[in-house]
Design brief:
Blueprint lengths: L12 E3 L5 E3 L3 E2 L8 H10 L4 E3 L7 H11 L7 E6 L6 H15 L6 E4 L11 H17 L6 E4 L3 H10 L6 E5 L7 H9 L3 E5 L11 H10 L3 H11 L3 E2 L6 H7 L9 H8 L18
Parallel strand pairs: 3-4, 4-5, 5-6, 6-7, 7-8, 8-9, 9-10
Antiparallel strand pairs: 1-2
Helix pairs in contact: 1-2, 2-3, 3-4, 4-5, 7-8
């Protein structure tokens, strides 16, 4: 398969409630599977990637600083997302954690700052109270321009409803697991109704989708890779999608998803594969520290 990526190509974007635009395709950098400096630089220089998703938890913010510097891509051309880990929840701790993430990333501001998980443990406070206190810190970071947009990750409808009642700013983004085996349509519909952009991680189902016979069959039909079918399906469903890889060639292939369109019957087929199978699970005290 020959390369069709143009580094000058501008990927489609989704409009946030505050008027900013987030690229529909990004590069995930989760610590699972390691971190590849070469792959990030390649994605920025050769594949036109401008949206990078990371988190304090992944332990690679400082590595990204060096990769971005080496890539030569101007800061203003990038969309950088990072996340607040639950052990940093609380008003003062959240403010400090954001400053530290900025320092590690070598930036003056973060494009999108997310609360990583809804479960929150602050002594003497309920999880709801802890989420609200933490979110007020994010609102302050947003008001001061340190974060251009703020959001949440892995929040379900009850968490979002509570946040809407307790705070002033509705999250601009909710990031959640999204792949053919896990398609939380009710949550996606809720987000759209409330003008919250839905962002999907784990689009390849940790690689499990790549060996599914239906997806392999569709890949042959469209002369694409199984990964490209999954990513295209996600984006075509209006989901901001952040696949990850440490291999430059795989990243290049993952970006070649804007030159074809899945037919409705094939979209319906992929939609029907949903079995509400979540692959990402985490609960206290695993996040402690």
């Amino acid at each position: 398969m020959t390369s069709e990526v143009n580094k000058d190509f501008r990927y489609p974007t989704a409009a946030l409630a505050n008027g900013l635009s987030i690229p529909m395709l990004g590069l995930g950098t989760s610590h699972q599977g390691g971190y590849s400096h070469e792959a990030v630089v390649y994605a920025l220089q050769k594949c036109g990637i401008r949206h990078i998703d990371t988190a304090k938890r992944y332990g690679c913010e400082s590595h990204l600083k060096e990769a971005i510097r080496e890539s030569g891509v101007p800061r203003q051309d990038l969309w950088i997302t990072t996340k607040l880990w639950p052990s940093d929840y609380g008003y003062e701790k959240a403010l400090q954690a954001c400053r530290e993430s900025c320092e590690r990333l070598g930036v003056d501001y973060i494009d999108l700052y997310l609360m990583h998980w809804p479960d929150a443990q602050i002594p003497g406070k309920s999880s709801r109270e802890a989420r609200a206190e933490t979110w007020r810190a994010l609102e302050e970071l947003y008001d001061n321009g340190i974060c251009r947009a703020i959001g949440v990750s892995n929040f379900q409808i009850p968490h979002l409803e509570q946040l809407k009642e307790d705070c002033d700013i509705i999250p601009h983004v909710n990031q959640a697991e999204y792949h053919p085996f896990q398609r939380p349509q009710e949550l996606l519909d809720y987000c759209r109704k409330n003008n919250i952009v839905f962002e999907g991680y784990c689009p390849l189902a940790k690689g499990e989708a790549l060996t599914h016979p239906v997806i392999i069959q569709l890949a042959k039909k469209y002369n694409k890779t199984p990964a490209q079918i999954c990513i295209r399906w996600s984006i075509q469903n209006g989901v901001v999608t952040i696949p990850k890889s440490t291999k430059p060639k795989r990243i290049e292939q993952n970006c070649e998803v804007f030159n074809f369109y899945l037919k409705k019957k094939d979209m319906d087929c992929l939609d029907s594969m949903n079995i509400n199978r979540k692959l990402i699970h985490l609960s206290y005290p695993l996040w402690n520290g």
